[in-house]
Every structure is written in structure tokens, then in C-alpha cells.
Sequence to fold (363 residues):
Amino acid sequence: MNLKSFALALLAVVVLAVGAFLGLRESRHEVVMPPTLPSPPASQPRPKLPAPAIPPIQQAEANATPQPSRIKKMLNGEELLEIRPEQLDGYLAANHRNVASLLAAFRLTGNRAFLNEAAEQAPNDPRVAFESWSRTQDKAERQKLLETWERSNPNNALATYLAAANLFKSGMTDAALGKLAEAAGKSDFSYFARESVLDCEEAYEAAGYSDAEAKVAASMELPLPHLGELKGMSQNLADLAKAYRIAGDDASAQAALNIGFEMAGKMATEPSYLIEDLVQLAVQNNLLQGLDPNAPSGIPGKSVQQLQDEAKARREALKADAQQSAAIFQNLSDADLAGYCDRIRLFGERAAIEWFKQKFGPP
Fold:
């Protein structure tokens, strides 16, 4: 029973109780005698013993296994919220079919007409460029979209890193290194995550889903296509550093690794998601593979082995937190899970997990 059903049931009980109370007040001066029942005859027959066996009364309702909520099914991968384009007509109209609402409609339905409409309406919008980039594998088209993103948001390092990754895939190593040099001077690493989640929440609610269902589903829908690209480019940089060392150019080898470490440092800016932290560690691990454990890592005061040990400890701690949280999830109400999603968006997933463990974990 959800909160609304519970409130209605409670209201019905209150109405019945009040009605009974008023009825008693109106009749309190009347004396009503119970009806007189006829006395049974003295020779009333009795059932013969031993009595035959009869099946027990089935208490199906009392013994029925509670059915998991839609949210629990979503978390277990058993059910996903389905949205038809026509369910979002009201949502799109209320938002004047702006870019944010069109992109949310595209993510929830997969109907490319919404993305095309957003691109026609705002061809230079960085949100449109990011969404469109993630939906094509054509390298030339990807480069064009990333350049659009760079022009519209010149301080965004992520767009420039992704452009460098695309150039590595195209075999244009020198051009990729030029892009990486540009990225070094940029501080922004945003990809519109929180805005996307809020837009999708609103769209789910407009389609008829509950507030809690909308929050959880919107968090699960968040696309993170850039993480795989950055992880792949870290391997490109590690291979490039190895090639420089073979050529006897240790300075260039270290410079290539330093570019990767700088990128890793920007990847999990707060508030971040757990997967961003884990991919950040994977990037660092790629850069350190094959190096002398006792050699300087390029990070002041840290050897290669020290960095590897720290990364391993952090990775195990993150996985342990995630496993503990997953076990607690099964016993939480939908409202608590919705609150957890709110905290992820506001404070990051690690902070949300800590709050989660303190409130719901074992004492």
C-alpha cells in the first residue's frame, strides 16, 4: 500500500468511527433490549464423535507474500518505466517544447524526432551537441559536434578531452596532443548531469508516475558515455609514454603520463557519482601499468607503488560501500529511496552512501 492509499484507508476508518459515535449520542436515551431467542429443546441432538476431518480455512490474505514495489523491481532490473511519446504531450507543451524538455523526451522514449527538433531549434546548444555526440559513432560527425560544444562553452575541458580521444581513434596523435594541451588550461568539467536528471524527473511525473518512481528512474537514466572514452584515452597515453621511453625520450614519456594524471584529477569533481570515482581510478591504473614500482609517479612525493596501493584501497572501500548499500536498499521504503536520489544529486553519491549507512545501517 502506498502513502496515498494508506491515507484514504485511514480516512475511511475515521469517518466510520465518527458516524458510530454520533449514532450512539442520538440514541443514548433509548433503552433497546436484545431480542429473545427461543430455548433449544432438551433433547437437542449433538454431532457424532470423532468428527470427520475438514480442510483448514485458507487465510490467503494473511499468508500472502508482499509484492515488491515498482521501484524495487526497477532496482533489481525486473522492470523499467516505459514512456510513449504521446504521454509527454502535456509536459512538452507546459515547457514550450524548449531544448531541455525535448532532450528529456528523447531520453525517455528513444524517439529521435525529439532530438532532431532540439537540434533544429538550437544547433549551437552544448546540451544538444553532447547528446548528439553520444548517439553517433561516425568520427567526423563526432568531431564536428565536439567542436560545436567547445565553441559554445570555451572553458569546458571535457569537450576538449573528448575531441582529443576522437582524434586518437582517428590515428591523429599529434592533433590529439594539441587538444590535450588546450584542455590543460580549462577548469570546467560539467556535462549537464544534474539538469538532465531534474528534467527527466519532471517528464516521468507528467507521464503519471509517482514522485519517488520519477526520482529513481531519472537517476538510473542518466547517460555517462564520456567515461568510457576517457578511460580509453588513458590507455592511448600509456602506450604513447611507452613508445617515448623505447625511443629514449623519458621526458616526453613523463609528460604524456602527466597529461593523463591531470585529466584524472578533473574527472570526479564534487558532487560526483560512484562510477565516476571508479573510472577515475581505472584511468590512473592504466597510466601506472608497466612502470617501475619504485620510480617516481610524476605526482610529487608519491612513487608508482604508493599510488597503486592507494588506488587499490580506495577502490575496495568504494565497492564495499556499494555492496553494503545494495543490501540495505531491499528494506527501504520508496520514499527513503527517493530521498537517497535527492542526496546524490545535491551532495554526490559517496556522501549519500555515508548518510544512508548512518541512518539505515546496523547500529
Remarks:
- The radius of gyration is 31 Å.
- DSSP finds 18 helices and no strands in the chain.
- The chain has two domains: 68-223, 225-363.
- Residues 1-38 have pLDDT under 50 and may be disordered.
